[in-house]
User: Fold U3 small nucleolar RNA-associated protein 15 homolog from Owenia fusiformis.
Amino acid sequence: MATSYKRTSVKHFPQIGEKITRDAVYWKNLEFPVIKKEYGAVTNIDFSPVEPYNFAVTNSSRVQIYNCRSNQAEKTISKFRQVAYCGSFRSDGLLVAAGGDEGMVKLFDVAGKSLLRTFRGHSGPVHVSKFLTGNLQILSGSDDKTVKLWDIPSESEVMSYNEHTDYIRCGAVSQRSKNIVLTGAYDHTVRLFDTRTDSSVLTIDHGAPVESVLMFPSGGLFISAGGTVVKVWDVLAGGRLVANLSNHHKTVTCMCFGSNHQRLFTGSLDRHVKIYDIASYQVVHSMDYPDAILSVGVEPNDKLIAVGMTSGLLSIQHRKPDTAEKVKKHKKSYSYIVKNKTYIPTADAHKVEHKRREKLEPYDKHFKKFNYSKALDAAIDIRVRSKTPEVTISVIQELIRRGGIKPALAGRDEKSICRIIKFIQKFICKSQFTPVLIDVSTMVLELYTDRLGSSVELQQALQRLKETVEMEMSYMKELIETMGTLETLFAAASSPLETPTNTDNTSIDNLHKTMSNSLSVKYETS
Assistant:
């Protein structure tokens, strides 16, 4: 039995400045996003800490509990008269607390959607509601500039802090201690409170209105976001600034952890979500969205990313399943139709598999028949080369691997070879394609130099290619001169910059000399 044809592998050529890292591959491995349209801006997304990791989406005057597998809202908590904020889960995933413009904090049972407690005492909208680690108290922060602690069983106020001088819009609780809480406000400060004392134990000036705060699980570090800057602070060192991250160009509105607290996600009004490596505080990946971002959440196992926007759009992206999961997912019991009746096969029934005919690309069909010239023609086709030049380059590399590039280029008419030269001229300056196209150019010159005197069209095509190569060489020389000047300026630095060298310079220079010699040949007309 003949084996199936192995298709031509189309390689991915990174763009200039693009770095293919593990994180880039990992975070690009997401399915096409599912977009939901909510009634108002999605101000908060919070994932349940326990399986099945459903997530609460706060928007307009309601909190919706979404199923992370079906992407549908299973429950809607709408017992708010005005706009709701900050719906968040308790650590066991059974209760949800939320604030709102009514100035109250409400506690709900997730299973029955029933209102269990109402905590009254704020005189302004409540934008912060978090369960403390002990699960018996709730932290709240309000536009009335107060931070309050509430006792759940007795439905009473335990503590109130009045140190902030502007709206309180974010808060976090320590996972290591049930007494440590963190709040951020529009007065540019982040305050750390110990609920056993009647005042803050640490105050940090962020330098801009604080939109979001996070605390590391260890409790020794915390992060604040405000303006276009995200800052990392060391609590144990008395609030020392550890890192200053300024990768957004508009206000950073939300943050969350991912990958078991090894990655930091930040969302901004610039419509981007940045992912940072906690070890180096460097951006490892970036994602863009259609509108300004107000909230972001990541499932604990990184299998789902949810992003809420000002326009009410909710983006839900799942991670692509592994091959083993795909096989398991598609293992289902099938019914068979026999004479318009449903037939369930028995254990000894013989099933004949129907194998669908494999659909190949045009160039693969010619490769299968060893028609190398036609395979190259199919790859040089304008519909392929204009939109996906990497496909054309991959076909050329496959021809080189098979030793068929010379037969594919030989014996062509003027129109055909000029089309190939035009493709080379268009993409030879792209660094990811340069090495392959230099080899092809050299081979074209070897094969068709003797035709230059008799073909004006071919001579003009090669002349344009020569001019393109000369212009690229001039750019390279200017770049090297500029970098040399910069090296002189930074000579006193501890780590002087190295002059960037392009490995393709020598090859391009040799190609330029070959073309010059070929075009300078004088032909005698008969």
In short: Residues 327-336, 522-526 have pLDDT under 50 and may be disordered. The chain has three domains: 28-319, 363-410, 415-420+428-526.
